[in-house]
Amino acid sequence: RLTFHDFSGKPTVELDWILVRGFSVDRFGTLDDAPGGVLPSDHFPVQAELRFPAAAAP
Q: pTM of the prediction?
């Protein structure tokens, strides 16, 4: 996903990543909220919902 927008609100570069190993990724995305019409950063935050692997039976 494109995340860098240089405060324009229109992302142009895929720059931010979440790298994982040993988890399942249930979903992921970027947050493009602008509270009060103000972008808090020049990058949109990236979020992911991860699932721990099932424990092995003893």
A: 0.74
- Residue 56 tokens, joined: 């092995």
**pLDDT tens sequence across 1-58:** 899 999 999 999 999 999 999 999 999 999 999 989 999 999 999 999 999 988 777 7
Domain count of the chain?
1
22 domain-assigned: yes
Residue for token pair 């950063």: 41
Q: Which residue has the tokens 């990236």?
A: 46
Tokens of 37: 């019409």
Beta-strand runs (E) in the chain: 24-30, 46-51
Structure tokens at 18: 């979440």
Full residue range of the structural domain in which residue 28 is found: 1-51
